[in-house]
Structure to design on (391 residues):
């Protein structure tokens, strides 16, 4: 059975984010995937490297390292990666930004940079990434703002998964002026997209 | 001018601390409010309570964020100092934007629900960024921090707001002379303000 890893970042439950997460999990399950859900808020993931000088992290740092290793193992075990998050200020929310910073790095690189290098696929097992995200502002404002979140995933993530990997962008814009039925249509689009690629 | 300097300084990064000091020293004829995200113990991830408050009349529910919003409200200029690991802003700086640049501070909604910019009082936005990667590699992916600060945030400030950007590439392998040249560039750039 092929594994799909769903990474979710939204503080509120219920929310449109949690509905999209549940939709993705359901659609992938129906399509025959074994679904692994990684909910960053539920896991109380720390988007910032624990500070060495604060005594309180001394006990926590062991479990923190363990959590990072667990996330890396789960990324290595999946073929399909689905990211579900709201776009804030044109990019990934701080929680997901911190997750990319801390988990998506080259484990063999010399500390402390651990940066991803081209031609070195850290997660070459992943052949498809699907990004499901919502934007408060309309598409033209996002274009004006430079869409750094979209490029970050479409180009930056490809360095770690290999250039064979497709990154799908399934996005809802202008959520601040959403018309009735529009979110339902988007939920339907997410479900169809995931069913189609399976 | 009132200048707010938003600095993301991991303890291990002494060079970035030197950059922040250089910027503040160069701005000595101005009033500087320093946001030291690590030292202040700022928590970047938006909580459920904060997200629920976001669209209410009181989107800020934390005294530290309240203080940051006061800095921004009186700021004539914003300066961001950070080190980039994943082509964009670090989580702390990104979280600061999400929590401080809320409705009523960075933007508002008029009676028709149309978004309107509220940062017209910010006349300058500047960034000081160090990157592990080369300029070429960064451009081939995206200079996410620069786009977010000079484009996304500038939409809230307006086209009359001037922007400046200081970047050091390949910072983990840059030698002392390269670092000194960069600090001298910061000194010259900010002393002109």
């Amino acid at each position: 059975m092929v594994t799909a890893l769903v990474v979710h970042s939204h503080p509120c439950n219920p929310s449109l984010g949690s509905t999209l997460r549940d939709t993705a999990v359901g659609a992938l399950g129906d399509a025959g995937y074994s679904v692994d859900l990684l909910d960053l808020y539920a896991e109380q993931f720390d988007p910032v490297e624990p500070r060495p000088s604060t005594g309180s992290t001394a006990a926590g740092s062991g479990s923190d390292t363990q959590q990072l290793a667990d996330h890396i193992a789960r990324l290595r075990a999946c073929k399909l990666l689905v990211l579900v998050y709201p776009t804030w200020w044109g990019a990934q929310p701080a929680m997901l930004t911190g997750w990319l910073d801390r988990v998506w790095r080259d484990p063999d690189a010399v500390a402390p940079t651990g940066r991803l290098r081209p031609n070195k696929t850290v997660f070459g097992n992943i052949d498809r990434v699907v990004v499901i995200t919502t934007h408060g502002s309309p598409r033209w404002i996002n274009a004006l703002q430079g869409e750094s979140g979209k490029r970050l995933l479409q180009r930056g993530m490809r360095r770690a998964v290999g250039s064979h990997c497709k990154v799908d962008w399934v996005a809802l814009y202008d959520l601040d002026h959403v018309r009735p039925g529009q979110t339902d249509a988007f939920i339907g689009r997410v479900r169809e997209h995931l069913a189609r690629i399976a | 001018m009132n200048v707010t300097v938003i600095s993301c300084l991991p303890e291990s990064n002494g060079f970035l601390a030197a950059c922040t000091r250089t910027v503040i020293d160069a701005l000595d004829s101005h009033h500087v409010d320093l946001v030291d995200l690590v030292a202040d113990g700022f928590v970047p991830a938006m909580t459920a309570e904060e997200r629920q408050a976001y669209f209410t009349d009181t989107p800020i529910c934390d005294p530290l964020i309240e203080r940051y919003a006061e800095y921004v409200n009186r700021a004539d200029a914003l300066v961001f100092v950070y080190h980039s690991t994943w082509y964009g802003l670090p989580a702390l700086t990104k979280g600061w934007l999400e929590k401080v640049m809320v409705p009523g501070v960075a933007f508002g909604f008029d009676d028709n629900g149309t978004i309107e910019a509220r940062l017209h009082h910010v006349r300058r936005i500047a960034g000081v960024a160090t990157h592990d990667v080369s300029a070429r590699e960064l451009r081939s992916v995206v200079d996410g921090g620069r786009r977010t600060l000079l484009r996304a945030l500038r939409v809230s400030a307006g086209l009359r707001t001037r922007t400046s950007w200081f970047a050091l590439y390949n910072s983990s392998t840059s030698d002392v002379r390269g670092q000194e040249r960069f600090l001298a560039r910061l000194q010259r750039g900010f002393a002109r303000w």
